[in-house]
């Protein structure tokens, strides 16, 4: 059985990660011009803004759903890819704006680690 401390830690990390992703994604839809200029400065095409925003929202929804273990794996993988590329793009142009993406990547990694740990406990309990 999972301890209360584990559940609180996992939920807190997942909430913080989700908020970081959703806050950044909100800018995609509510401040498109700012995001478009930043995406262009990073060397990415602006046509990825809306599809990426939609996928990020779907990814956050997925990591909160129960019984979607395989889909959660894909969602976390997608976040790792996009956040790693974000950090790398900011570092490559030396704009010193990589910290939000790096912090999100760290929170997402911890959330994924705790998700996997939860899966082992659940699997052990059902065996």
Give an overview of the whole structure.
This protein is mainly α and 127 residues long. The protein is built from five helices and no strands. Helix 1 crosses helix 2 and helix 1 runs antiparallel to helix 3. The radius of gyration is 16 Å and the shape is elongated. The mean pLDDT is 94.
Q: How many beta-strand elements?
A: 0
In total, the number of domains comes to: 1
For the sheet with most strands, the description reads:
none
* Helix/strand class: mainly alpha
Runs in which pLDDT lies below 50 for 5 or more consecutive residues are: none
State Rg.
16 Å
Helix content: over 70%
The protein's oligomeric status is: single chain
Which word captures the global form?
elongated
Instruction: Please indicate the percent range of residues in DSSP E strands (runs of 2 or more).
Output: under 5%
Q: Whole-number average pLDDT?
A: 94
End-to-end CA span: 13 Å
Helix-strand topology string: HHHHH
The total count of helices amounts to 5
Topology (SSEs and partners):
Blueprint: H1 4-30, H2 32-41, H3 49-64, H4 69-93, H5 99-126
Helix pairs in contact: 1-2, 1-3, 1-5, 3-4, 4-5
Could you name the key traits of this structure?
127 residues, mainly alpha, 83% helix
């Amino acid at each position: 059985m999972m301890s209360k401390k584990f559940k609180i830690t996992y939920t807190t990390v997942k909430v913080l990660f989700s908020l970081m992703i959703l806050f950044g994604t909100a800018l995609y839809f509510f401040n498109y011009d700012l995001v478009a200029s930043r995406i262009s400065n990073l060397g990415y095409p602006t046509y990825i803004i809306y599809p990426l925003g939609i996928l990020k929202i779907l990814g956050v929804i997925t990591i909160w759903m129960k019984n979607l273990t395989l889909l959660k794996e894909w969602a976390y993988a997608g976040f790792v890819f996009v956040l790693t590329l974000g950090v790398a793009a900011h570092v490559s142009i030396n704009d010193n704006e990589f910290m939000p993406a790096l912090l999100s990547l760290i929170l997402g990694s911890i959330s994924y680690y705790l998700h996997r740990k939860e899966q082992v406990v659940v699997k052990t309990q059902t065996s």
